[in-house]
Amino acid sequence: MEKIDLEFSKSLKKYGAVDISPCFNCGNCTAICSLSTEDNSFPRKMLRYSILGLQDRISSSVDPWLCYYCGECSETCPKEANPGELMMALRRFLVAQYDWTGLARKFYTSKIWEMGAILFLALIILAIFVVFHGPLTTELTAEGGVKLNTFAPWHQIHIGDWIMAGFLAFFLLSNVFNMYLKILRNDKKIKIPFRLYFTELISLVRNFITQERIKDCEKGKVYWLIHLLLMSGYVILFTMIVGFLGWFQTDNIYEWWHPQRLLGYYATFGLLVGCVYFFIGRIKKDKELNKHSHYTDWTFLVLLFFTTLTGILLHFFRIYGMPMATYYMYVIHLMVLFPMLMIEVPFSKWSHLAYRPVAIYFSNVLNKAKELQKS
Amino acid sequence: MSNKIGVYICHCGNNISEYVDVERVKESVKNEEGVFIARTTMFACADSAQTEIIDDIKNNALDGIVIASCSPKLHLQTFREVAKRAGLNPYNYVQVNIREQGSWAHSNDPEGATEKSIGLVKAGIARTRVSKSLEPLTIPAKNIVLIIGAGIAGMRAAIELAEMGTKVYIIEREHFVGGRLSQWGVLCSLNETGKELISRIYKRLKELDNITLFTGADLISKTGSSGNFEVEIKITPRYVKSKCDPESLKNAIEACPVEVTDEFNFHLTKRKAIFKNFESEFPEAPVINMEDCTRCGDCLKHCDSIDLDQKTEIIKLKIGAIQVCTGFDPYEPKEGEFGYKTIDNVITLQQFKRLVELNKDQLLFKGKEIHNIALIYCVGSRQFGKINGSNQYCSRYCCTVAIHSSLVVGKKYNDIHCLHFTRGVRTYGKQELIYDEASQKGDIFFHFDENTPPTIEKSGSKTIVKVNDVYTDQIELGVEADLVVLVSGMVPRKNNSSVEILKTPVGRDGFLNEIHPKLRPVETVIDGVFISGAAQGPKNIEETVNSTLSAASKVNAMICREEIKLEPTIAKINEDTCEWCGKCSETCPFEAISQITHNGKQIASIITTNCKGCGICTPVCPVDAIDVIGYTNVEIENMIMSLAK
Q1: Do domains B330-491 and B567-629 have the same CATH topology?
Q2: Which residue of A has its CA nearest to B466?
Q3: I want to staple B305 with a disulfide (CB 3.0 to 4.6 A). Which of A182, A322, B244, B411 is the partner?
């Protein structure tokens, strides 16, 4: 017997679920969904679990991650119970469930906690720079650029990067492990052969790179393309910052065709286009997926946008030889960038970069294991 | 006797002529004895064909017609009207069915079909030759109705009939009017309570001079027939005179030492032997239930309006028609059915309605505050095959009442959760809106299969409802409930004496049966007895009033002219040959044959208003003393002779 929890659907509202109680279980949402399959039928099932408050079933479910929120279900719902937005809210709920520190739940359910954390991290960066910054030289390089590495030597910043990356990796991976326990180790009756973890690994890599499942979703190719642009831009920049900061944060001014500049411009373009596209969407509210913005959606978008904007300004201030502007912008850039990565990646919206492909991977492993068990 | 007969053979498009050679039939019968004209026609029922037949009758002074076409069920009346319009007695018209009995029955054998049709038409002609002109029978009728039951159905019909000019006697077995409706609180889709609705109707009823209400009254016998019934009514006294001082009465009620459980509140509370169910109840005077009263006399000390010596009376009434509005009883679950009577917080929907009515600010049951309410649907309804004498019908009103009650408690009390365990919600029609409202407000609906009903279990002090929910992959779910409400449906009234006395047929479900559910929904096979409301089958209030008004207009239409026209085709006794053996009377299904003294000997006599002309009495008569008019032995013999030729 599984116990019904009548308070659950109320607590779910904090994660952004609009009122789902009108649902009368017709299943139109599942019928219209282009991603729902016989093995994984959603979103009706998730709605039912949410109404009844079957938390264990929700926590161990991979389904919310398999939905890309085209919004067809919400448009089709005869009772306006908004299944699409519920799936979104459940993803937020799951992020909070996977996170063993409890911070994700705090950030999702309390604006004060989220804003406070951002401010706190930004002030730490500020304090570090106030205390430890290098000389504020106005002398320019031979090419006329700012000597940024004098103000903030890259090898010192790089150490900070690694520490940060270590933090991110630790929290994110431990949360993924938690997710593994909830999804794959929940049902003790299903025996998962060890080799499946390797044979299915390819799907993890493929989905991370191509994000091809979005294309199956009804909302079409444009969304997929822009999402891919944004995501690839982010990955390139993140890789350059964490892996090759010496090459990226240089005082040299390369020709426009130099890979450092081309990669940087491509990534910036991707981030900018992505941010603007999602901004416009959330303001216009013209599609189901952007009709109901949770405050964390905005926080993420605003932080990402300001990171990009300050990065662009920083770049131009440097190559056009404006030393003081460059130094200030550098600090501001890091004051936005650091909280964004520290909060969004392991504890909030950006964690989906890991959870989504991992969920597909887990789902494939689980389905294969079930098939084997049947035969 | 007809000697100038017109014969018409119908093609019925090609329904008949495809297999029956219509022309050959005409040729074969045109020289039969008595035939003056024989024609074929494409559609005998068409306007143009009817005009031609009328012209033929008028121009040739025909004294009989035969139309060979479809079943008399379809067009007998049509062609009787044709005869009438041409000035011919409609009983000199004979219909021969060569469609259902000819072409359709023998579509594999056109030759045989044609031969058979020729034979049938010839027999029809033979019958017409000896047919007699007949006139409809007219019997006097009293424009007075007896309505049994003063609930919403009875009272509403009484008002309507009185307004149409029919005198009304309305009898109520209880000592107060209102029936079930006065037990319900605020009604679905209204802002009015059942009590308020009843008060309104009662006031109107009292304004009308031609309505007489008897309470504590039961039908004990009925004689006579449609238009002229005589009934006996037993009236149990209230033991309280109608005019009395309210204050002293109140004291009298307080003084009564007897306490019994209150059936008005479905045994949730106690009442005295002298009681009123609620303050504004009608008639205003309270009643003493003599089954409970010990005649201790305590009440007499406080009130001189009480008279313990009042006697039961029997009165006789002469009436023209009877309308039965005896309503329903709520289904009472068996002991142990979903924990009823075995688990302390399991009650029925009807009890729940009373509980909500009795609790003002807080919903308390046995002193405990209620927050989670589990409602189990279809208790006592839609039981297929499992239980002996199962109620297979849907009780129609319970889904709506259960959901409406959930809305009421949601508004009336704080922090209430309603969980509905259904087998599919049937809030049909406009009632769907409240289903929507309930789900919007957060009520949770579960769906269980008939074969795996929910179980109610006690675990310590907690009551757990378990269900295999169809909406959730049939997994077993459990929830704690403070109160379990069994949404029980309707069953026929227990001890409904009127059924026995009026001999109205009941169906296998125990509800009263109409003649035809779609075409004659408020009439019974007992002429002059009409049925309406939930006595006939589960109905909600709207449907009850619809049916009761329909029955009222049927009653009025039958007796308002103070005479009733009947078909003349009924049995007739040959007074000379009848020797009264009683066999016909035993056989008659309509109690239409009585024994009388005629010229010094005992003979059978037909009660005109009861006889349906079925003819079952003719073959049992050992001396051939009974004829059915319009189907006399001579007519039938003539037909047989013709066919046997």
Answers
A1: no
A2: A1
A3: B244
B→A interface, C-beta within 8 Å: 372, 417, 419, 436, 439-445, 447, 464, 466, 471-473, 475-479
Q: What is the dihedral of CA B314, B318, B319, B323, to 10 degrees?
A: 10
Determine the Cα–Cα distance for residues B443 and B132; give it in Å rounded to an integer. 72
Q: Which member of B440, B441, B475 has the closest CB to residue A2?
A: B475
The pLDDT, as a whole number, for residue A218 is 66
Kindly report, residue by residue over B3-40, the tens digit of the pLDDT. 899 999 999 999 999 999 999 999 999 999 999 999 99
Q: Report the residue of chain A nearest B441, measured CA to CA.
A: A21
Q: Classify B144-236+312-327+495-559 by CATH class.
A: alpha beta
Structure tokens at B386: 């499992």
The set of residues, in sequence order, having a beta carbon less than 8 Å from that of B457 and lying 6+ positions away, is B339, B463, B464, B466
CA distance A2 to chain B (A): 5
Q: Which fold has domain B567-629?
A: Alpha-Beta Plaits (3.30.70)
pLDDT tens, B260-294?
A: 999 999 999 999 999 988 888 888 888 999 999 99
Q: Give whole-number Cα distances, B587 to B564, B618, B622, B624, in Å.
A: 26, 10, 13, 15
Q: DSSP labels for A149-191?
A: HHHS-HHHHHHHHHHHHHHHHHHHHHHHHHHHHHHHSS-TT--
Angle between helix B349-358 and B398-412 (nearest 10): 30
Domain boundaries, chain A: 8-98, 103-374
Task: Kindly tell me if the per-residue pLDDT of B73 is higher than 70.
Answer: yes
Mean pLDDT in residue range B180-196: 91
Nearest to B185 by CA among B5, B363, B47, B439: B363
Q: Which amino acid is at A125?
A: I
CATH of B5-129, one of 1.10.287, 2.30.30, 1.10.1660, 3.40.50: 3.40.50
Tens digit of pLDDT for each residue in B559-606? 999 999 888 999 999 999 999 999 999 999 888 999 999 999 999 999
CA-based torsion, B384, B389, B395, B398: positive or negative: negative
Alpha-carbon gap, residue B377 to B360, rounded angstroms: 26
Consecutive sets of 10 residues in chain A, 375 residues long: mean pLDDT of each? 90 88 90 83 91 93 90 91 93 95 93 95 95 89 89 91 93 94 87 88 87 76 89 93 90 90 94 94 85 90 95 93 93 95 92 91 90 86
Closest partner residue to B478 (CB to CB) among A3, A23, A49 is: A3
Q: State the CB neighbour count (10 A cutoff) for residue B197.
A: 18
Q: CATH assignment of B330-491?
A: 3.50.50.60
- Enumerate the domain spans of chain B: 5-129, 144-236+312-327+495-559, 246-301, 330-491, 567-629
Which residue pairs, CB below 8 angstroms and at least 24 apart, start in B179-183?
B179/B149, B179/B150, B179/B151, B179/B152, B179/B153, B179/B154, B179/B327, B180/B151, B180/B327, B180/B328, B180/B534, B181/B151, B181/B152, B181/B541, B182/B277, B182/B278, B182/B281, B183/B264, B183/B350, B183/B353, B183/B354
**Could you count the other beta carbons within 10 Å of the beta carbon of residue B162?**
22
Whether residues A1 and B477 touch (CB distance < 8 A) is answered with yes
Chain centroid to Cα B180, Å, comes to 18
